[in-house]
Amino acid sequence: MREAAVDALVRGVWAAATGEASWVDALDPVARHFRARMAVVQRFDLANHRVLAIESGGAPDLEDGVLQYLRQFHQLDTRKASLLEGRLVPHGGWYHDHEHLDEQFVAGDPFYQHFLPAYGCRYVSGRTHAPAPDQACLFALELAPDRGPLDTDERAELDRLGGHLDEALRAYERLRRAQAQVLAGHQLLHTFAQPMWLIDTDRFVHDANAAARAEAQQARLLAQRGPHLVATAGRLETALLAAVHQLRGQPHGSRQVLQHRPAGAAQPLWLHLSLLQPQLSAGAFGAQAMVLVTLFDPQQVPAFDPYALSSLLDLTPTQARVATGLAQGHTVAQMAAASGTAVATVRSHLFSVMQRVGANRGDDLVRRLHDGHLLWGATGA
């Protein structure tokens, strides 16, 4: 009976690796089978141990814990460094923390005292492997104190599952890199002046326009480490990681807006992330969920650029073009005639824009559009 159950778990991880199922659907049964609070797959940049992505399944009340881990506590996770550096067990070998960390250490360690107890976790069993030369993957089970460590039979089952997971993740990485070669032919991103990246929820870069490649080469704010998009500033990297994680499983068009003010800069830069679900984007960006990342620099992009207005202020394309037309000196009547719509319709769009920006009159809106920092400061709301 247990053997048949492990067979089902193996099929689940292969389904997730080939895109037939989500990683949540694959990892939830793993957590239940081993009576774990959570089953986790984390991907890291091998060069600097930066967290690239995290997949998890298990207790539904732990989603807050995943976000807290990404935002802050992964930096305190002493187990992670031991596993990634292979200090205690070689890569591919199993690490069971109770065999390496005594109770005295646990009693004085911030991660064990201030993070794990809040989410009902105490023990971990995990292993690392490298699905690609530039990244490491950690598979782990987080176990409750009253559940205790894995017994001998459970370890044998986990070892079998772990071997299949290693192969599945290698296949997943090969498939993703092959798909990226096809997606690189998309021309849509390359028509925009703003730096734009098309990434998946592991931050794997599937496409980038010329401005994005130039930005990544300068590494002013964002860079590409291997195939992954990362932020060069620590706080922004943490925010970017959390923002991408929060977009997982969200409806098409869900967005996150981040800001970062470089040292000595008069105005902040804005990073806009928009989720593209394949079934609602005509499959134009591939067969899996993608995140469109756009960098807006008020010094380089006109404040009344329609795409910037639409993205950062959450305006419809029509509302953005009405705002742009007004900023360029067109009257409501002229815009109505040019678009073949009623004057009342254009006024309605204009009123919506004014509400969004916080302007009282049309001339106030125009002033804000031309005085960029007032407009850009309204974003992220």
From TrEMBL:
SMART domains, A to Z: HTH_LUXR
Highest taxon in the source lineage: Bacteria
Organism: Pseudaquabacterium pictum
Biological process according to GO: regulation of DNA-templated transcription
Signal peptide: none
GO molecular function: DNA binding
Domain HTH luxR-type stretches: 312-369
Official protein name in the record: HTH luxR-type domain-containing protein
